[in-house]
Amino acid sequence: MVICEIYRNFVAKNALMHPLFNSRFLLHSLHISLMVVFFKKGANLIYAVETSHKFSDEEKEKLQWLFDGATPLTSTSVKGRFVGPRKEMITPWSTNAVEITQNMGLEGITRIEEFHRVTTDEPTFDKMLSRLYDGLNSKVFTTSATAAPI
Question: Which of 2, 16, 27, 94 is least crowded, fewest Cβ atoms below 10 Å from its Cβ?
């Protein structure tokens, strides 16, 4: 039992440092809780950053630079209506953004997505790739769907 816990801690620590193993699914299977931190750019753009830890001030500064001056929000939710990627689909933009953060020396970030505030009743967007969110919260990337049996 002790050996299993030591191995789990070793894998968890190294999974966050190695890009090959920096997978949301691996982290979930190891029961490593992920949190979402929001950054706001202007009135209509929100960046949602999924991470395994609370950011230090230095990490926040690096992300602010990456997001062109977007400010981190202290709230775990954002009110309003937003169009953003479906939670089940990690966008290529997110994959590239996460890789950039790794190259910047930031660890533990598993997903970054953009959400755009909408003010119209019927916003236009590609329903295959995006969806309309009534507010954003820490569950914005959580999916509850299970695979269908074969």
Answer: 2
Runs of H (alpha helix) within the chain: 2-17, 24-29, 57-66, 92-103
Which are the contacts of 51, defined by CB distance < 8 A and separation ≥ 6?
A: 34, 35, 36, 37, 108, 109, 110
pLDDT tens string 28-67: 555 568 999 999 999 999 999 999 999 999 999 999 999 9
Residue 5 gets the label, from left (phi > 0), alpha (psi -120 to 50) or beta, of: alpha
CA distance 38 to 63: 11
pLDDT in tens, 137-147: 999 999 877 77
Predicted TM-score of the model (pTM)? 0.78
What span, in angstroms and rounded, lies between the C-alpha atoms of 51 and 68?
19
